[in-house]
Amino acid sequence: MSTPTDADTPTSSLRISMTLSGGASLGAYQAGAAAGLLTAVRHLTHEESVETTVDAIGGASAGSLVALCAAHSLLEGIDPVRLLHEAWVEGVSLELLRGRGGRAPLSFERLRDRVPALLEPRNESGGPTERGPRQEHPIAVHVGLTGLQGLDYPIRGLRRDRPVTGTTYADWGRFQLEPGGGLEQITKPEGEAPLDFVLASAAHPGGFAPRILDRRRDEKGYESRGIENFPESGKLWYADGGLMQSQPLGRVLAAARHLEGGGGDARRIHLLIDPRSEDPAGSGQWSDPDFDPSWQIGLARSLAILPAQVLYEDLRRIEKDNSRILWADQLIEALAPHLGEGAADALREVIGRIDEDRKGLRADEPELEDARERSGDGDGDGDGEGEGARLLRRAVDEIAGLAGERPVEVDVISPLLVLDEPGGSVTSLLAGEMMGDFGGFLSRELRASDFGLGYESVLAWLPDGLDRCGVDADAAKRTVGAVEGCRLYGWEDVRRGDAGVGDLTWEARLQIVRQGLQTARVLASGAGDVRALRERLGNPLERMRGMIAGRSGRGGGGQDGG
Q1: Long-range contacts for 518-526 (Cβ within 8 Å, ≥24 apart)?
Q2: Cβ density class 535-562: b for 16+ within 10 Å, e for less
Q3: Radius of gyration of the chain from its Cα atoms, rounded to whole angstroms
Q4: Is 265 within 8 Å of 13 (Cβ atoms)?
Q5: Are residues 283 and 31 in contact, defined by beta-carbon separation less than 8 angstroms?
């Protein structure tokens, strides 16, 4: 854990933000971990007088669906353990996701119809479940997306009158969910609701067709980021957000700062929930010369690397930013006493040029415009050393890319926390990892195992994690006991880690056969698309062959002439 703040004094206020990675059926792990964390949040706030607020939750792929469920449970006062267990263990299966017709092997259409029932659980008599206290602070939900059109923006080149055109396929959706907003704020309006965004983010190209979203409401936001080719229709097609994320942790932190809206003495922590976190032993086979991986194994590994690389690069960036904030503070403290007469005017002029230049640059994080409180947006009416120091801080923060940022503790919750021994492997713990992480959809038992593993990981994190956050030792112990008491079952009682096809029931194996038939149906119906693609590529290929043949002929003639 990165610890930029002093945790010796017990805290009375804790602010949390979370990022959840992707992983198809491994969303069950993230759901279990989120359920444990939110149970701890509720207990700290309402039983221990430690005001604990979740400011922002972000995710991509399956993680975005877990994020939406988690935010809803907290804002509506619904038991997070029961809601997330119902949604991810009881409510999702391969049968529910199997596509109908020839468009894709899998489909979210029936799941979307079931979401209201999953998010509004009922008791045995059919009435609404009893609700507890809810969080009275809104939650920002950030959804990572992979855009299939691509968004063009200018990049200043050597000649500023003719900028280079860049293209990004990383996109996102931002939502602010309010306490008591109910299902309406999640499911409406169709085509641009948070639910539609998370389903688009979870549309893995290995099984799901792309999904279209209405972005007309965000047109001005695209324009402010310098996007040049926003479509006239205002609608864009998307696929799995885990494939092409951009600063997934940083954007959630920016959203949290925007909602928090001020300083204060609260301890801040950002948690990454990642079922894929591998110890070195878990990837050792990829340096073994005797290992002979098949095409499928190589493909699965390559697809897993993409989101993991982005997440951990961003985690490292945040760690560096924490250090840069400390260095910037030290620099300002050393220089401020030596600022002479006229320094404030000179610094104000520099800041003005920075602001003007920024208007011509693509702004990846519009939230920063509303989160510059640390840098001191206001210049004040007075002059002298105080004003000069504020302006110096503003200039240093802008140049260093620290505007609006504050130190934040970061930590990872993963299966590594519950490994039986240092040499163990995460693969031996996860149950739904087979079949490219879709294996958990075959069996409730596999999903229950991963849900229990996620919950167990939080129980392993809480004692040390709460201590590092400055929570009083006795309060932390009682919180761990409360989380322990709310879990539905012990992980060891349902543990099915490292499961393979041979461990499945005959009913689950039959599901594989049915899914294979559906996939074959889709491939057969798409044969015309393949032929059309070949025809579209045919002319350029023929022209290229003609050019090569022509060059070869000209070359021969030259040699003969010589």
Answers
A1: 518/98, 518/99, 518/105, 519/105, 521/102, 522/99, 522/102, 522/103, 522/104, 522/105, 524/102, 525/101, 525/102, 526/102
A2: eeeeeeeeeeeeeeeeeeeeeeeeeeee
A3: 26
A4: yes
A5: no
Q: Tell me the average pLDDT across 445-465.
A: 94
Yes or no: say if 71 and 57 are a contact pair by the CB < 8 Å rule.
yes
Q: Which amino acid, residue 233?
A: S
Residue with tokens 């392993």: 460
For tokens 């579209």, the residue is 536
In 3D space, the residue among 322, 320, 395, 317 whose CA is nearest the CA of residue 358 turns out to be: 395
Residue 259, Cβ neighbours under 10 Å: how many? 20
Cα distances from 90 to residues 20, 486, 496, in angstroms, run 21, 18, 17
- In single-letter form, the type of residue at position 470 comes to G
Residue 327 three-state SS: helix
At 560, which helix (H) or strand (E)?
helix 527-561
Average pLDDT (468-478) is: 92
In the structure encoding, which two tokens stand for residue 556, read together? 């021969």
Q: Quick check: 536 pLDDT over 80?
A: no
- Best-predicted range by mean pLDDT (61-70, 158-167, 323-332): 61-70
